[in-house]
Amino acid sequence: MQKATVVVKKITAEDTIAVRHPVLRAGRPKEDCYFQGDDLKTTVHFGIYDNDKLAGVATFLDSKFPTFEGRHLQLRGMAVLDEFKGRGFGKRLLEAGEELAKKKKINLIWCNARILAVPFYEKLDFKKIGASFEIPKVGIHFVMYKQISNTFDSC
Ligand SMILES: CC(C)(COP(=O)(O)OP(=O)(O)OC[C@H]1O[C@@H](n2cnc3c(N)ncnc32)[C@H](O)[C@@H]1OP(=O)(O)O)[C@@H](O)C(=O)NCCC(=O)NCCS
Protein backbone atom coordinates (compact mmCIF):
# COMPACT_ATOMS: atom_id res chain seq x y z
CA MET A 1 0.00 0.00 0.00
CA GLN A 2 1.22 3.51 -0.84
CA LYS A 3 2.25 5.77 2.05
CA ALA A 4 0.07 8.87 2.65
CA THR A 5 1.82 12.09 1.67
CA VAL A 6 1.08 15.51 3.08
CA VAL A 7 2.70 18.50 1.37
CA VAL A 8 2.40 22.27 1.66
CA LYS A 9 2.84 24.24 -1.55
CA LYS A 10 2.14 27.62 -3.07
CA ILE A 11 -1.22 27.80 -4.83
CA THR A 12 -3.24 30.46 -6.65
CA ALA A 13 -5.94 32.69 -5.18
CA GLU A 14 -8.46 30.77 -7.30
CA ASP A 15 -7.33 27.45 -5.77
CA THR A 16 -8.09 28.69 -2.25
CA ILE A 17 -11.80 29.08 -2.99
CA ALA A 18 -12.47 25.31 -2.82
CA VAL A 19 -11.63 25.48 0.89
CA ARG A 20 -12.48 29.08 1.80
CA HIS A 21 -16.03 28.66 0.54
CA PRO A 22 -17.22 25.69 2.64
CA VAL A 23 -15.18 26.60 5.72
CA LEU A 24 -15.29 30.39 5.92
CA ARG A 25 -18.24 31.51 3.78
CA ALA A 26 -20.66 28.54 3.89
CA GLY A 27 -24.07 29.37 2.43
CA ARG A 28 -22.82 32.61 0.93
CA PRO A 29 -22.00 33.38 -2.71
CA LYS A 30 -18.55 32.38 -3.96
CA GLU A 31 -17.84 36.04 -4.76
CA ASP A 32 -17.66 36.65 -0.99
CA CYS A 33 -14.62 34.35 -0.83
CA TYR A 34 -12.25 36.71 -2.68
CA PHE A 35 -10.16 39.08 -0.56
CA GLN A 36 -8.73 42.44 -1.41
CA GLY A 37 -5.07 41.93 -2.30
CA ASP A 38 -5.49 38.27 -3.33
CA ASP A 39 -3.92 38.93 -6.73
CA LEU A 40 -1.07 41.19 -5.68
CA LYS A 41 2.39 39.92 -6.66
CA THR A 42 3.48 40.12 -3.02
CA THR A 43 0.60 37.94 -1.77
CA VAL A 44 1.35 34.27 -1.13
CA HIS A 45 -1.29 31.53 -0.89
CA PHE A 46 -0.37 28.18 0.63
CA GLY A 47 -2.32 24.97 0.27
CA ILE A 48 -1.83 21.74 2.20
CA TYR A 49 -2.49 18.54 0.24
CA ASP A 50 -3.25 15.13 1.65
CA ASN A 51 -2.64 12.60 -1.11
CA ASP A 52 -3.30 15.26 -3.77
CA LYS A 53 -6.51 16.46 -2.12
CA LEU A 54 -6.45 20.13 -1.12
CA ALA A 55 -7.27 20.04 2.60
CA GLY A 56 -6.43 23.51 3.90
CA VAL A 57 -5.38 26.98 2.80
CA ALA A 58 -3.85 30.17 4.19
CA THR A 59 -2.99 33.51 2.59
CA PHE A 60 -0.22 35.92 3.63
CA LEU A 61 -0.38 39.54 2.47
CA ASP A 62 2.16 42.33 2.90
CA SER A 63 0.18 44.55 5.27
CA LYS A 64 1.43 46.66 8.14
CA PHE A 65 -0.40 46.66 11.45
CA PRO A 66 -0.19 50.28 12.70
CA THR A 67 0.68 49.60 16.35
CA PHE A 68 3.93 47.77 15.64
CA GLU A 69 7.31 48.67 14.17
CA GLY A 70 8.81 46.94 11.16
CA ARG A 71 7.35 45.00 8.26
CA HIS A 72 4.38 42.72 8.69
CA LEU A 73 2.41 39.96 7.01
CA GLN A 74 -1.34 39.67 7.47
CA LEU A 75 -2.70 36.14 7.60
CA ARG A 76 -6.11 35.76 5.97
CA GLY A 77 -8.33 32.89 4.93
CA MET A 78 -6.90 30.29 7.32
CA ALA A 79 -9.15 27.28 6.78
CA VAL A 80 -8.98 23.50 7.01
CA LEU A 81 -11.78 21.28 5.69
CA ASP A 82 -13.75 19.59 8.49
CA GLU A 83 -12.58 16.08 7.64
CA PHE A 84 -8.91 17.13 7.98
CA LYS A 85 -9.14 19.17 11.20
CA GLY A 86 -7.03 18.17 14.21
CA ARG A 87 -4.23 16.62 12.14
CA GLY A 88 -1.75 19.50 12.42
CA PHE A 89 -2.60 20.94 8.99
CA GLY A 90 -3.42 24.43 10.29
CA LYS A 91 -0.12 24.42 12.16
CA ARG A 92 1.80 23.39 9.01
CA LEU A 93 0.21 26.26 7.07
CA LEU A 94 1.19 28.76 9.77
CA GLU A 95 4.73 27.39 9.81
CA ALA A 96 4.91 27.93 6.04
CA GLY A 97 3.91 31.56 6.66
CA GLU A 98 6.59 31.93 9.30
CA GLU A 99 9.24 30.57 6.91
CA LEU A 100 8.02 33.04 4.30
CA ALA A 101 8.26 35.90 6.83
CA LYS A 102 11.84 34.93 7.69
CA LYS A 103 12.81 34.77 4.01
CA LYS A 104 11.27 38.19 3.40
CA LYS A 105 12.83 39.57 6.61
CA ILE A 106 9.40 40.39 7.96
CA ASN A 107 9.27 40.50 11.73
CA LEU A 108 5.61 39.97 12.59
CA ILE A 109 2.49 38.11 11.42
CA TRP A 110 -0.95 39.35 12.44
CA CYS A 111 -4.55 38.41 11.77
CA ASN A 112 -8.14 39.15 12.67
CA ALA A 113 -8.91 35.94 14.55
CA ARG A 114 -12.43 34.57 14.87
CA ILE A 115 -13.24 34.05 18.52
CA LEU A 116 -13.53 30.27 17.97
CA ALA A 117 -10.05 30.15 16.46
CA VAL A 118 -8.35 32.14 19.27
CA PRO A 119 -7.24 28.98 21.20
CA PHE A 120 -5.68 27.60 17.99
CA TYR A 121 -3.63 30.76 17.49
CA GLU A 122 -2.69 30.91 21.19
CA LYS A 123 -1.42 27.35 20.95
CA LEU A 124 0.86 28.57 18.18
CA ASP A 125 2.16 31.50 20.26
CA PHE A 126 -0.01 34.26 18.85
CA LYS A 127 -1.11 36.93 21.35
CA LYS A 128 -4.31 38.94 21.49
CA ILE A 129 -4.14 42.71 21.35
CA GLY A 130 -6.99 45.11 22.08
CA ALA A 131 -10.69 44.54 22.59
CA SER A 132 -12.90 42.22 20.56
CA PHE A 133 -14.76 43.64 17.56
CA GLU A 134 -17.52 42.48 15.23
CA ILE A 135 -17.03 41.78 11.53
CA PRO A 136 -20.47 41.91 9.87
CA LYS A 137 -21.77 38.50 8.68
CA VAL A 138 -18.77 36.72 10.26
CA GLY A 139 -18.81 37.46 13.99
CA ILE A 140 -16.59 38.46 16.90
CA HIS A 141 -12.84 38.75 16.28
CA PHE A 142 -9.63 39.70 18.07
CA VAL A 143 -6.48 41.06 16.50
CA MET A 144 -3.72 38.54 17.20
CA TYR A 145 -0.03 38.67 16.34
CA LYS A 146 3.15 36.67 16.51
CA GLN A 147 6.58 38.22 16.64
CA ILE A 148 8.87 36.36 14.24
CA SER A 149 12.05 38.29 14.96
CA ASN A 150 13.08 41.56 16.59
CA THR A 151 15.96 42.14 14.24
CA PHE A 152 17.40 40.63 11.11
CA ASP A 153 21.19 40.75 10.97
CA SER A 154 22.81 41.45 7.65
CA CYS A 155 25.14 38.68 6.51
C1 LIG B 1 -8.68 26.93 13.15
C2 LIG B 1 -8.27 25.81 12.15
C3 LIG B 1 -7.58 26.45 10.94
C4 LIG B 1 -7.27 24.88 12.88
O1 LIG B 1 -6.82 23.92 11.93
P1 LIG B 1 -6.42 22.43 12.37
O2 LIG B 1 -5.69 21.81 11.24
O3 LIG B 1 -7.61 21.73 12.88
O4 LIG B 1 -5.43 22.72 13.61
P2 LIG B 1 -4.13 21.86 14.00
O5 LIG B 1 -4.52 20.42 13.97
O6 LIG B 1 -2.98 22.28 13.17
O7 LIG B 1 -3.92 22.33 15.49
C5 LIG B 1 -2.68 22.86 15.97
C6 LIG B 1 -2.75 22.90 17.47
O8 LIG B 1 -3.81 23.77 17.88
C7 LIG B 1 -4.76 23.08 18.68
N1 LIG B 1 -6.09 23.53 18.33
C8 LIG B 1 -6.65 23.56 17.10
N2 LIG B 1 -7.90 24.05 17.17
C9 LIG B 1 -8.13 24.31 18.47
C10 LIG B 1 -9.23 24.83 19.20
N3 LIG B 1 -10.37 25.20 18.58
N4 LIG B 1 -9.12 24.95 20.54
C11 LIG B 1 -7.98 24.61 21.18
N5 LIG B 1 -6.88 24.11 20.55
C12 LIG B 1 -6.97 23.97 19.21
C13 LIG B 1 -4.57 21.60 18.34
O9 LIG B 1 -4.96 20.77 19.40
C14 LIG B 1 -3.08 21.54 18.08
O10 LIG B 1 -2.38 21.44 19.30
P3 LIG B 1 -1.17 20.36 19.48
O11 LIG B 1 -0.09 20.82 18.53
O12 LIG B 1 -0.79 20.47 20.92
O13 LIG B 1 -1.76 19.05 19.10
C15 LIG B 1 -9.49 24.95 11.71
O14 LIG B 1 -10.13 24.46 12.86
C16 LIG B 1 -10.52 25.72 10.90
O15 LIG B 1 -10.43 25.77 9.67
N6 LIG B 1 -11.52 26.31 11.57
C17 LIG B 1 -12.64 26.99 10.90
C18 LIG B 1 -12.19 28.25 10.19
C19 LIG B 1 -11.52 29.24 11.12
O16 LIG B 1 -12.01 29.55 12.19
N7 LIG B 1 -10.39 29.79 10.63
C20 LIG B 1 -9.68 30.82 11.33
C21 LIG B 1 -10.18 32.11 10.84
S1 LIG B 1 -9.48 33.44 11.78
Structural classification: alpha+beta
What would CATH call the class of one domain? Alpha Beta
Work out the helix count: 3
Rg over C-alpha atoms, rounded to the nearest angstrom: 15 Å
Strand content: 35-45%
Calculate the mean pLDDT score and round it.
94
Give me the CATH architecture of one domain, please.
Answer: 3-Layer(aba) Sandwich
* CATH homology superfamily name of one domain: Gcn5-related N-acetyltransferase (GNAT)
Fraction in helix: 10-25%
Give the neighbour order of strands across the main sheet: 1-2-3-4-5-7-6
Distance between the termini: 47 Å
Low-confidence stretches: none
- The general outline is globular
The H/E string reads EHEEEHEHEE
How would you characterize this protein structure?
The protein has a domain at 6-108: Aminopeptidase. The chain is globular, with a radius of gyration of 15 Å. The protein has helices at 13-24, 89-103, 118-123; strands at 6-11, 44-50, 53-62, 72-80, 108-114, 127-135, 139-147. Strands 1-2-3-4-5-7-6 form a seven-stranded mixed sheet, with helices on both faces. The protein has 155 residues and is of the alpha+beta class. The protein contains three helices and seven strands, in the order E-H-E-E-E-H-E-H-E-E. The longest helix has 15 residues, at 89-103. The chain binds coenzyme A (COA). Coenzyme A (COA) is lined by residues 23-24, 78-80, 85-91, 111, 113-114, 116-117, 119-120, 123. The site of coenzyme A has 20 residues, from helix 1, strand 4, helix 2, strand 5 and helix 3.
